[in-house]
Amino acid sequence: MQHMQSFTPISQIRTLRLLAFRFRHRMDWTKLTKPYTCSFQSLGWYPFKGEFNYEIGLLRWSERRLTPLEFFEKMIGRGVIYSLEQLEQVTKNTYLVGFTGPYANTLREKILEYGVGVYTSNVRDGTQEWTMVIHKTLERGFLDAIRELGCLYDQTSKTPSAQDIYDFMLLDASAMKSLTFLLSDREYDYILRARQLGYFEQRHNARVEDIARILGRNPSTVNRGIRSGINKIVSYITTISGQAGHPYRQTQKEAST
User: Fold this and answer.
1) Where is the HTH bat-type domain (predicted)?
2) What is the model's pLDDT at position 75?
3) Residue 204 region, left (φ>0) first, then alpha (ψ -120 to 50), else beta?
4) Closest CA to 188 of 230, 138, 128, 142
5) pTM across the whole model
């Protein structure tokens, strides 16, 4: 018996949107990078009790008019960054940086408020570049909320594929940690090998039989493992991209009454 050559989309995926856009805040440190030859890739950010945000990332610096340290000192002087906690040179023009800054009235605050799952976050030419997963019922409210903070550019939105969802798990650090708890060892191995072989890609470069043969497993067993694992992943993404936003908003509403 021949098994499915491609993963059949699970209905829950249709409740999500893969959202990409560029955003320029009215006034924050990212906007103030525009005059300088530099870029920033966020590796992680952690709000502290809603009072400030701690961010860590890679800064690529090719600007000759001032050093990275002088740049951060300038941003601290303008109040858009609170403190520089870490500045380590990794390569000739790349630095690992850690710093604190405002959290209230920032895009990051809205991300947590609406339970958004982030793919990537970069800064170029004073503009933030975002790719994220959000529950479709929250998409419009989220976009309206961030428009109040700045200018939105080049927005695209689509229903994510199974490959998109798995890529999210690989690229999002907290989600990747959750993956080891969500899946059994065999589910993890099956899905990892399926992705490596192109099983989730649109052209379906691999069949279940191909994966089973490489792993030395029965195709039916591999097929069940892949499907059950993907169901768990999609359920996880659906939860953090939808329901996660509701308790926060309810709490905020109650606090304001």
Assistant:
1) 183-234
2) 96
3) left
4) 230
5) 0.65
